[in-house]
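User: Hi! I'm working on a homework problem where we have to compare a predicted structure to a textbook description. Could you give me the structure for the chain below?
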Amino acid sequence: MSKLLDFIFPRRKGRYGGYEILRKVASGGMSWVWRARQPGTGRICALKVLRPESAEMIDVFRRVFEAEEGTIALRLDHPNVIQTFDYGRTDAGGYYIAMEFVDGPNLEQLILLEFSRVQENRFDLIRQIGAGLSYIHKRGLIHRDFCPKNVLIAPDGTAKIIDFGLTVPASLKARTVLSRGGTASYMAPEQVKSQALDERTDIYAFGVSVFEILTGRRPFPAVAGRSRRMQDHLNVRPLRLRQLAPEMPEELERVMEKCIAKNRDLRYKSMQEVLRELEPAVEIAESRRG
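Assistant: Happy to help. Predicted structure tokens:
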């Protein structure tokens, strides 16, 4: 019973793993996120507590945070990547991760509810999330669940990539285990097929996300059901950027098409390559808007 209560306890105010719980920020199928105060420092943070039934996340936690690679997460230091302060387990076996607290909406919410605000800052947002994802890859990690809901927008407009619950070290890319986790609308074909993953899997998700930032829609039809959305990545030809945003230059459309190629061998090999071709294409788009 004590173990059960230790998992359930984060639903209400109190303490968890030594952290003072202040208020619930979010609740999902695999975790709770709380605004909390760190013991000793008094620092306000986001405390992510893994649900006991989220076996996949707990397995990833053990592989990443309890292994040597766990020190990588603590050393991530980039303006467009959420900072991880601490991680651990309670005596009763509960798992938690303490991260930088960002008091702002996620990008998915902004696209749905304030798309005009996104349009005003779309090229700046694209540059920021591209830089953050490139940094993550340089530090030897694959995000595996990159999408607009996993980008927080701070009050000053800074984009922060969050939710490393499914992140794995690139050294594990040869394994197929855990490869099907992620958000269905942004999953690369190899992820849908439970094949081995690498940086190109994140590049695919980046391309889908940028398409959505620019147009307000994803490059695949909106269909109900996780399975059907995943199948679209395998079988449906994506929309072209200029079908929805004819004012965009052909150069930018070509970058998007290469990012979301179904055959990963046809995609960019790294985010550095993406950014090298993306920047001049974005500059053309900006000059036309001006």
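For your comparison, note the following. Confidence is low (pLDDT under 50) at residues 1-8, 173-179. The first strand starts at residue 14 and ends at 16. Good luck with the assignment!
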